[in-house]
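Bench notes, afternoon.
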Amino acid sequence: MQRIVTFFTALTLIFLSQTLQAQTASTEFENNIESIAANFDFDNDWGFHSDQNDQLYYIDFENLKMNLSDIIVMNDSGETLLEEEVMDLPVNTIFEIDFSEFGKGKYQIELRSFTGLINKEIEIK
C-alpha cells in the first residue's frame, strides 16, 4: 500500500514540475509577443498589423472572426497584384504582404472566406 502512495506522490510531483515549466515558457513567449506587437499598429477587429513605414502588412489569422480562403491585393484601378489561397494554412498563421515591390499608391486588401468578405484600403506613400 505504501508503494502505491509513494508512486502516486512521485507522479504528482512530476506533473506539477512539468506544469510550472510550461507556465514559465508561456510567460516568456507572451512577453516576446508583447514586445514584437509594440512595433506595429494594431487593429483588433481586423487582425491587421503594419510596420512603421507601412511597407509591410501582416494579417493575423487568429484575430479574425472567420477562417480565410483567399487573400487578394488589388491596385487602385482594380488590377489583381497578389492572389493567395490560404485555406490550408493553420489558424494561427501571420501572413505577410510586402508592398515595397508594388510602389506608392492606394491598394485594397481583400480577405475572403466562405461566409464573408473583409476589405481594407491602404495607401503606400
